[in-house]
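Annex B. Sample input.
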Amino acid sequence: MLIAESYIDEKINVVATQSREKPVRSLAKAISWRITGSLDTILLSWLFTQSVNTALAIGLTEVMTKTLLYYFHERIWSRVKLGIS
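Annex B, continued. Sample output.
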């Protein structure tokens, strides 16, 4: 088992050091995550406020701000060496 884990770790590290995410991938990930997160926010906002208009206003506002924050967060982390051999 230890030999297999060592082999897998070695292969994962080789791939991680040879490829870097391009900005377009970070953007696509940010958009797909925000859709998921925003649907959750809209649903929770509607449950708490009982107002569809308020829920949509909250959800649409957070889409814009959190998409940008996530994109820049991803780009910063793409430069951090933590956990990459």
